[in-house]
Amino acid sequence: MLKPHHEIATEVQEIKASLQKIKERSERYRFQTIDHQSMVAQNVRRTDPRKDALYLEDGDVVGIESSRDELIGWLVEGSSYRSVVSLVGMGGLGKTTLAKKVYDHQLVKGHFDCHAWISVSQSFNVEDLLRNMIKQFRKARMEPLVAGIDAMDEDSLINELREYLRQKRYVVIFDDVWKIDFWEDIKHALIDNNTGGRIMITTRNMKVATFCKKSSPVHVYELQPLPPDDAWELFCKRAFQFDFEGHCPLALEKLSHYIVEKCEGLPLAIVAIGGLLSTKDKTIFEWQNLYDSLGFELGRNLHLVRVNKILSLSYEDLPYNLKSCFLYLGMYPEDYSINCVRLIRQWVAEGFVKEIKNKMLEEVAQEYLIELIHRSLVQVSEVNFDGKVRRCRLHDLFREIVLQKMEDLSFCHVLSREESRFEGLTRRMSIDGVSYNELKGFEDTHIHSLLLFNPDELPKSYMSTFFVDFKLLKVMDFEDAPLDHIPEDVGSLFHLRYLSLRNTKIKMLPKSIGKLQNLETLDLKQSLVSDIPVEIKKLRKLRHLIAYYRNNKLDFSLAWEKGVKIEKGIECLKYLQKLYHVELNHGGVDLIKELGKLRQLRKLGVKNLTKETMMALCASIGKMNHLESLDVSSISENEIIDLQSISSPPQCLQRLHIKCHLEKLPEWIPQLQHLVRIRIFWSKLSDDPLKAFQNLPNLLELEISNQAYIGEQLHFQKGGFPKLKILILENLNGLYSLMIDEGASPLLERLSIGPSPQLKEVPSGIQHLRNLNDLIVRDMPKEFEESLDPEQGPCHWIVKHVLFIHFPYKIGTGNYKWRRTLCSKQIN
Fold first, then answer.
1. Residue 46 scores a pLDDT above 80
2. pLDDT of 619 above 90
3. Which Pfam families did the record assign (predicted)?
């Protein structure tokens, strides 16, 4: 079948654009055409970019002494069983350098009978690796080589090694291991002979670091970037090695600090950039020029090519689908802390995520993200209370490499204040801080994804033509945009799968929203939308509807958070996973019954629950077998709600938030073995609720606040709350006594108390909470606070082990600031 003329013309344009990019790259990198004979004549050799790390001078190494000593301890001390030490971290952190310092140390050399250093790399041959081990072991002991070793097959080499090591204490360093199946290739050769054999590996991948724990004890050492002072010292040693006696001149100090910050503690980059600057004139012009063009220099300058190669190795090792996911992070601005849920939904919308039987696409995408983190390509910038990754980011230098690859592959173009013009073809565009005037030139584009950051304005006149010019969009992310209107033309974006209007001034969605039949995510959080059009029921592929507004100018109350009104008909949304929040007083019992037909729901938030609608909601919740998060709020603080009638509570439930007056706690709560967080407010319970919660095996966070409990005493009994890390007891006006037995909540890290005007004595038992890092004392009675004074307070002994004691005070409505913080003497 012949293609239409316009498709052929488009492909020709794309080919021409690709050829132009190849030409530009050739000029940028100064490529030359080399025939076969000239290549042979020049005897071109590939060099291992890691080799320099084996021969670093002491002046190139800073701040590794404590890490070196700890690793040496793991090698020479401990049990007589064979064990593994894994040194893990991103490329360029100095793993090879540190491992070589450990390997060469006299304590290590003297402790072991034989030793070997093996460079593994991405593509290794098992027989060559085993043969190399035998040769190094024998060479270290000045023994002759085994006759015929070069002709031995794998089984013969394994047997030779096992026999040789049978009575010897050995140490082997495997540098730069990439594959998790590496252990299967070598474990039989390195015998566990009960003499204290040690294996040490360096790797960028956490999965590789821990894989061998099935058959050997493993110590994992995560190498961290250099702290600022060490990074500065290393930079000055390199940049001023020939001038100023190794010290930075005052005129260059500010720029030098900017350059060091750009390296983010990466020794490889600091040494390379410092070495390059040591050859430059010590002028502000020269240094500013390098700082401004660092991304370009990474691909061109001979001093920095090793940095580029080493960091690029991690990218090149990725499977094809993960490469696209990784490049996508480059669409976010520099130093941006990326919301992982946002990123995952965009990956799904882009089609990057492969379907796996019995798994949601979002679950598979989460595994992709963890894989990128394990491979040290993505940094964790924030974790949730349960240890799951909340936000992530790219290292600045990785981002420079990503930007270059995105350009080379026409994956995405980034428009920013520094580069606000674009000519050519691309499938994705990220726009950061660029005036909407720069976007007017885009007509009938082939762009599939558009991420908008920090725009100055988006007038209605521009938005009225926007959707005509971007008809092929799959991802449209306008979070935080100064936008107060969405025209009817949004319905023309037939391919749209992801639409975020989060934190905009949009008040109303057009009815044409119902035409977006491929839409999977509609994010209206912190927008001003209060009514969802009835046409939403046409979005049969919708997976996530997030629509609520928190008024942070108000004190915390039921009015602080509002949901949206939804009409009947949402039972058609069979793929919906997240619905947060729905106001139940506008859809009636019929709407609530429809909720029970949304069997894929993972997260549900409902507002304005009443006595009349309570039974219908309980019946619907009982049908939600996959529900993981439930947030229920009543129409008023005095509306008594009975949740006991949920006959089959969702057994997968992990998060439970109840904001309503309960006569008693539902008896089904103790059955939910997967609960990790419980928050209850305004429940006015007279019986101690702790008895219902204390045996939940996975509970990490518990909040009982705002008159959720009106009794006088709370008692944390021995053995209760085995995993609890966060405990919040706020605005409990009747609380007179808080008791904590020894052995209760042994893992508690954060405790927040107050205001509780009747609680005038520091709770007995806090001294037993040995893992407590933060104690927050919020508007407590004067005698309570004074008793904690480290100089004269009679109760300070109870809390002297706590790292930080905070005393916040209220400023205006709904906000607190730290008045003062006491620090434990354990902190320097």
1. no
2. yes
3. LRR_14, NB-ARC, WHD_DRP
CB 447 within 8 A of CB 428: yes
Token pair belonging to 736 = 């007179």
Say how many C-beta atoms besides its own lie within 10 A of residue 115's C-beta. Answer: 20
Residue 767, pLDDT > 70, answer yes
The reply to whether 534 and 562 lie within a common domain is no
Query: Model-level pTM?
Result: 0.82
Range of the domain at 237: 228-309
* Residue 197 and residue 152 in one domain: yes
As a whole number of angstroms, the distance between CA 174 and CA 792 comes to 57
Is residue 415 included in any domain, yes or no? no
Residue at a domain's end among 359, 374, 408: 408
Same domain, 625 and 664: yes
User: What does the pLDDT look like over 92-114, one tens digit per residue?
Assistant: 888 988 999 999 899 999 999 99
Q: What's the CA gap between 682 and 25, in Å, rounded?
A: 64
- Which tokens in the block code for residue 697? 């095996």
- Phi and psi dihedrals of 29, rounded to 5? -95, 5
Residues 103, 201 within the same domain = yes
Three-state secondary structure call for residue 799 = helix
Amino acid identity of residue 405, one-letter, is K
State how far the alpha carbon of 202 is from the alpha carbons of 85, 121, 145, in Å. Answer: 9, 10, 28
Alpha carbons within 13 A on the beta-carbon side of 465: 12
First to last CA, the chain: 75
Residue where one domain finishes, among candidates 272, 292, 309? 309
**Residue 205 is assigned to a structural domain of this protein:** yes
The residues with which 130 forms a beta bridge, in sequence order, are none
Q: What is the mean pLDDT of residues 688-712?
A: 96
* Shared domain check, 529 and 476: yes
Rounded Cα gap, residues 293 and 534, in angstroms: 52
**Residue 146: band (very low, low, confident or very high) from pLDDT cuts 50, 70, 90:** confident
CA dist., res. 146 & res. 657, Å (int): 70
Q: How far apart are CA 562 and CA 635, in angstroms?
A: 11
* Same domain assignment for residues 322 and 256: no
Is the bond leading into 581 cis (omega within 30 degrees of zero)? yes
Q: Is 772 exposed, middle or buried (0-12, 13-18, 19+ CB in 10 A)?
A: buried
Q: According to the model, what pLDDT value does residue 718 have?
A: 95
